[in-house]
Amino acid sequence: MPSYTAPTKDMQFVLHDVLNITAAGIPGYDELEADFTSAILEEAGKISAGVLQPLNVVGDTEGCVLENGVVRTPTGFKDAFEKVKEGGWNGLDMPEEFGGQNMPQVMGTAVGEMFSAANQAFTMYQGLTHGAASAILAHGTDAQKATYLPNMVSLDWTGTMNLTEPHCGTDLGMMRTKAEPQGDGSYAITGQKIFISAGEHDMADNIIHLVLAKIPGGPDGIKGVSLFIVPKFLVNEDGSLGARNGVACGKIEEKMGIHGNSTCVMNYDAATGWLLGEEHKGMRAMFTMMNEARLGVGMQGLAQAEVAYQNALDYAKDRLQGRDVTGVKNPDGPADPLIVHPDIRRSLMDQKSFAEGARAFLLWGATMIDAAHRAKDADADGLVSLLTPVIKGFLTDEGYDMTVRAQQVYGGHGYIEEWGMSQYTRDARIAMIYEGANGVQALDLVGRKLAQDGGKHVMAFFDLVKGFIKENAGDEEFDAQYLEPLKAASKDLQAAGMYFMQNGMKNPNNALAGSYDFMHLFGHVCLGLMWAKMGLAAKRSLADGTGDATFYETKLMTGRYYMARRLPATAMHLARIQSGAEPVMGLEAANF
Amino acid sequence: MPSYTAPTKDMQFVLHDVLNITAAGIPGYDELEADFTSAILEEAGKISAGVLQPLNVVGDTEGCVLENGVVRTPTGFKDAFEKVKEGGWNGLDMPEEFGGQNMPQVMGTAVGEMFSAANQAFTMYQGLTHGAASAILAHGTDAQKATYLPNMVSLDWTGTMNLTEPHCGTDLGMMRTKAEPQGDGSYAITGQKIFISAGEHDMADNIIHLVLAKIPGGPDGIKGVSLFIVPKFLVNEDGSLGARNGVACGKIEEKMGIHGNSTCVMNYDAATGWLLGEEHKGMRAMFTMMNEARLGVGMQGLAQAEVAYQNALDYAKDRLQGRDVTGVKNPDGPADPLIVHPDIRRSLMDQKSFAEGARAFLLWGATMIDAAHRAKDADADGLVSLLTPVIKGFLTDEGYDMTVRAQQVYGGHGYIEEWGMSQYTRDARIAMIYEGANGVQALDLVGRKLAQDGGKHVMAFFDLVKGFIKENAGDEEFDAQYLEPLKAASKDLQAAGMYFMQNGMKNPNNALAGSYDFMHLFGHVCLGLMWAKMGLAAKRSLADGTGDATFYETKLMTGRYYMARRLPATAMHLARIQSGAEPVMGLEAANF
Description:
Chain A has 20 helices and eleven strands. By secondary structure, the first copy, chain A, is of the alpha+beta class.
């Protein structure tokens, strides 16, 4: 049976030693002293490890069951949900006026990683509620906020996002769900939505569906899409629950993983809904929350990698198999532990260096979202918009690969469900797909974000890397181990961008054919930058003689691994990109 | 529901245009004229697509059930097994004296790819029987051969391989199963074996278990392991079935995939067994069949990639989503098919260029095994021994990754079991683990095979590549697109080998820490060589004006993709390798 320990020390290191959040000048950050964040993270770690994690395998094994229109969640989910409610975890970064604690998103992200690592399928019920509440917060009228937010912040009611239909997922302009005005300010919503996570379940009194639909007579395609609030139970004037609305779960999908979450086909049959935001501006309303939502999915990639790594590490230390070729390490045992073997070590170091680098990247991303929201910092907003597809695409691709590596450490036992490692792989797989499949992230990055605001944000990123290297150069060892690899990787990224500029104009496919490689190249440079920052922080602390020297030395070793063993991928991605569109597009579709 | 079409034309191209098998001078190959091989492949394709493939999802959904000691296979498996028996498919490459058709292994490999692609879990019942029969053929007494082989070749009886125990998989020296002589030439086998594929089922009259066990008083560790034949039902003198033996299935494992195959815990309780081969030489007997068995697993990697690709391609042509940025391709429809998008094309080309390259690599490997067995060609034997871990490790890693890519093409539908793409990923995952986990393959390659016979075989490989490039240079376009990338990749491989030689002596971890990267580097060079050979064959046919020009042009395009987009991975692997042991091993195990 797998276990999970919340990486609070690592999180504290990133928050305080690396990001130095209390000095960041972002409103609300001054309160985030180390003792305070430590207390929150310890509490979150306790509920993650003690309450959510033990239900992870249960959720996978039992799944959700639809009977007579009611969805039964796995044994124990309802009690655990009550505990999450009692702890007020969903309101951590929500406004106080709606019952939240108004903390910055960087804290919500750190806590979210723990919850997701402990039980991704379970945490999605809360995560979707948080997302839907954020959309109402950003676009709702005062009355809508007053009606829905307190109940959603408290988790008495949960929320969903309804975008996909059977014939369209990415291309939502083809949507068929319609919303007909009923003359009283409400609309009658009719259509079928699929892949609706947490669409129906038995853990909340009401479910608030946010539904994209077209108002007849509006513009064609994506410009005619509006967003609606469609509660499962209508809400009376006094806030009590009224009649059941015309929305029902038609089916629960059988999926590869996240069995504990009910993925529903939702049928809307003249269900009463209310416009959220403006008519025909539904996509814009949905996209307001996109950076946050996609960061949340990238976080899931990290979370599954982290928990899978922890278990692979335990197994590698426990399982005796073979002998260290450089000399027996466990002479009293029948064999040495797996961890003595260099190829097992390679796999563990891949996982460890990814998880720690990804955590820094995510938390840095969250600070930029906070800066954008709380300090109206347009530069931070631009930079995090640029990096969002990288966070989502790179961290979920790599996160998945790391769960596969962790599973591999278990040998044959990794393939047997009883050991729990297969679940991490199966659960992690979804994050590469939902909230915009990773190919769409790459398209967003190269097709939209790179050139946004005249390329200002990508230039800012390059300046940031260059500035960091310049400021911190001078220590021969650190230069060689950290700054030079980062500089080389960053040059590859610039060369790739240059290739797109020079060749994308004459044929956009020269850029698009390299988009996926560019997303990964960018991801490696970001993790390289994070490791350089973490290495620097560790070096400083060692020089100061403060804190746990072994912890900092371990950081330096882990970072060196990333620099030496993972960053060389950038040159490969660049070579692929520079081969241009022709090898990719040369073959006629008919001749495949 | 997924579909499968056997790639007979591609196989014929490799067998005849590329490998030119009838001129290979290997006994039995002279009969393999194009018409003859085509007839076999067409028949195998029919049973694969028509009988085995429709049962693939059934097997996944129903799985195997153990009740009162009896294992029930999924609906339809028994009938399909009868059809495979009737067709004589298991005896294709078995000797005529035992009821086989005595064809070379290259034909068994081509047919095996089809069967595995159509239904991997089902085909394993036959594959393990084939493997066990091969071991009896190589090491059995005449009496053992006469007793077991005709029934195993015909599939009236099936076979299994019993190596793993709960506490040891790779490190079989720790084995506890014991074999006590009973004074009559037989042994009493007692112990527990796990992960026994096809260990118990309802499709055959008898099951012949090959079991590794230790005879008390023998040498310690791996040198004290012997191999035994342990039939489920004892066989009477007259060949009829006698008493039930003391072997029983204790449990069927719940696995990530290959649900249609019964993976059993097998309990041996003083079961009667007979020594196969010599006392204490069990590992050697097992290893005789290793090249063949590992090639068979590599083949599974290709097979799952091929069938997943075929379905991803169909979906990419059918599913309408978004518009081609360079101009609308389907003006009468609501959107263009997915295949117009460069990133979808990248994914499909990755899959296609892998599958076709892997097929050539596998069939080439099979010709070397044939040359070794049929022509006693020691050089071929040495080269295929060197390449076996590459075939197994690289093709299953890449094969798995390709199923993940194929699944991704389906977007959200790829995650829903109903669409069948998740099964390819889940089924393909096992091939990276069994028959020696891929990390063990890398260790075998770098720790044993590279230096075997004084490094003679790896030198032969380099000479082969060099010779090929030299012989075929001169066409400017072909040189630039094919030979130069191959040369560069091959140089990276040589540099990696050189690094190991120069640094592995002072610290073997300098080699072992790079073993996994070396295996992948080697795999890319092999596929590069295969593509250069296929490109050359296509170019010749185009120049001759014979055959289907579009087919050959497509081959050239696909090969160019591999060269331009996949081969650049070699430089990355080299860089990782050259960073040596220190980044991998520097961190103390206790500090992870």
